[in-house]
Amino acid sequence: MQVVKYMFQPHGDDRGQLVALEEHKDIPFEIKRVYYMYDTKPGVVRGFHAHKSLEQILICIHGSCKIRLDNGSEKKVVPLEKPYEGLYVANDMWREMFDFSEDAVLMVLASALYDESDYIRNYDEFIDYVSKK
Ligand code: T46
User: Is this model's pTM higher than 0.85 or not?
Assistant: First the structure.
């Protein structure tokens, strides 16, 4: 499984850092939705689903967390620890987010509006779905 991590270019000066993200330039799709999670409680694991068509970029803009990716045949854990790195998560990929630091803010840029019918929330269903492709 190929893990695609983007290293965004910070515009740093003596005031600090600024990262700008533009669709189809820094981000490989049109950004239709932005959401973020924070105040994640200790030991919590989120996700446990895949998407049929949604593509996303995950950026831990503060603190740190880990992402487990599973394409049905291989699993990888990717740490997100810097506000200038973004993990590309394609469709047909089971994901779990865990090991959130107390101060973690995980921001997600998504290629589509929220649509519950795009989710596969059952692991056996996911395995069945990807094995038929
Ligand atoms: C994903 C991972 C990385 C909305 O109403 N609109 C939204 O855009 C989102 C993302 C969620 N919601 C509602 C649906 C649930 O009632 O917020 C609640 C929590 O969502 P969920 O349990 O799906 O959250 P996570 O953290 O398990 O997963 C989220 C995204 O849903 C998912 O697409 O890839 O983050």
Answer: yes
**Active site annotation includes 62:** no
CATH architecture of 4-131: Sandwich (2.60)
Going from the Cα of 13 to the center of ligand 1, the distance in angstroms, rounded, reads 35
Can you tell me the mean pLDDT for 37-57? 98
CA pair distance 16, 69, nearest whole angstrom:
32
Atom of ligand 1 nearest to the CA of 67: 3
Strand pairing of 65-70 and 33-37?
A: unpaired
Centre of ligand 1 to C-alpha 2, Å, is: 24
Q: What is the per-residue pLDDT across 99-116, written as a single tens digit (0 to 9) for each?
A: 999 999 999 999 999 999
47 lines ligand 1 (CB under 6 A): yes
